[in-house]
Specification:
With 376 residues, the protein is α+β, with helices and mostly antiparallel strands. It has helices at residues 15-28, 66-79, 89-92, 106-110, 125-128, 131-138, 158-170, 174-186, 212-220, 228-232, 250-255, 266-280, 283-290, 363-374; strands spanning 7-10, 34-40, 43-50, 60-61, 190-191, 263-264, 294-298, 303-307, 326-329, 335-339, 344-350. The chain contains 14 helices and eleven strands. The chain is globular. It holds the Pfam family Beta-lactamase. Residues 36-348 form the Beta-lactamase-related domain.
């Protein structure tokens, strides 16, 4: 794909980002469809897109990049003094204290240290779409490790757990808080619950198309449905949907589970993080939520991970970024973050599920290009 197929604009000094995006598109091939947006000190300096059917206004499922929206709400409530990070979850939500979870704090929960990564028996598609159902199922669940002794990515349930705390304290859902405090005031194309009138702008997620070598790698590293990884990614239910299918299900787009159900454009992703470091969060709150709380071997993903509070520590994966950068990737390949030290906010979104799942590999080269232009 040549550079003339890249649409959109860049500010002066960011021409190299357009060239890098074109190089990525050429390497990915003809069905590559993606959006790339960056803000510097609140100004949009990169706004690019390419690929069949995709426009700047197209919306796709952003999977776990939704966690950034959900936990921006939690950060705001902590900043307001409504929630206390070191209070026990069971203080807010008594039923959660069952089966050895009574001492788990909100900080532990946000740092993926609570051990409740899924449920015995798993969830149907309708259940995984409904945060209230997930919370009800997980309250009596025995944790899969002793809370606080290790960490593991609560991939499909963390938003339901933190969301139930928010609901118990405020009487309102994370989705409602996000709409009123973040999406509407900043006019963001990032929805936790896609309005029916915007459905025509939604593009379905396309499945991964691994090469024979990639397929062999997937098979060699496969885990069983009843393994900890299988439980964390809901493969322990016989009728569970494939992960890539989730945003294609209308019930997921409507209810928008706060772990994985968000629908956005790259403009929405980057715009949210620009707002977060543009005055929505105080520097002290941003620093606390970005601080490393869990780092090392992740029991759920069986690989290295680094988490702050609800957010990923993105500088661990992209060391060109400043200390204190915070954000979250999504399974199909999206990545979004704020880097307060450089004033950079970044959003990347792609339509086809990237190998091997999680932040798409091309983010590394795009982030380097954006950061280099921003700090030149």
């Amino acid at each position: 794909m040549s550079s003339e197929h890249i649409q959109g604009t860049v500010a002066a000094g960011f021409e190299s980002v357009r060239a890098e995006f074109a190089a990525v598109a050429a390497a990915e091939g003809g069905d590559y469809a993606a959006q790339l947006v960056a803000h510097l000190d609140g100004e949009r300096v990169v706004d690019l897109w390419t690929g069949p059917e995709l426009t700047a206004d197209s919306l796709t499922g952003v999977f776990s990049s939704t966690k950034g929206a959900a936990h921006l709400v939690v950060a705001l409530l902590v900043q307001d003094g409504v929630l206390d990070l070191d209070q026990r979850v069971a203080h807010y939500w008594p039923e959660f204290g069952a089966a050895g979870k009574d001492a788990v704090t909100l900080r532990d929960l946000l740092a993926h240290r609570a051990g409740v990564v899924g449920a015995d028996g798993g969830f149907t598609a309708e259940e995984i779409a409904d945060d209230r159902v997930i919370a009800e199922r997980l309250a009596p669940q025995r944790p899969y490790w002793r809370p606080g002794t290790a960490f593991g990515y609560h991939a499909l349930v963390i938003g339901a757990l933190t969301g139930e705390v928010v609901r118990r304290v405020t009487g309102r859902s994370i989705q409602e808080h996000f709409e009123e405090r973040v999406r509407q005031p900043f006019g963001l194309d990032f929805y936790l619950g896609l309005p029916e009138e915007l459905e025509p702008r939604f593009l379905t997620t396309l499945p991964m198309l691994p090469t024979p070598e990639q397929l062999a790698e997937l098979e060699a590293n496969a885990t069983g449905p009843d393994s900890l990884t299988g439980i964390a990614f809901n493969r322990n239910h016989p009728k569970a949907p494939e992960l890539w299918e989730l945003p294609n299900l209308e019930v997921v787009r409507q209810l928008s589970p706060a772990s994985v159900g968000g629908v956005a454009s790259a403009r929405g992703l980057a715009g949210m993080y620009a707002a977060a470091i543009g005055g929505l969060l105080s520097p002290a709150t941003a620093a606390e939520f970005a601080q490393v709380h869990s780092i090392g071997y992740d029991l759920s993903t069986r690989k290295h991970n680094a988490f702050g509070l609800g957010f990923a520590v993105v500088s661990d994966e992209y060391p060109v970024l400043g200390q204190g950068a915070f954000g979250h990737s999504g399974a199909a390949g999206s990545q979004a973050f704020a880097d307060p030290r450089s004033g950079l906010a970044y959003g990347y979104n792609r339509r086809r599920f990237a190998f091997p799942g999680g932040a798409a590999p091309e983010n590394a080269r795009l982030i380097r290009a954006v950061h280099a232009a921003a700090t030149a």
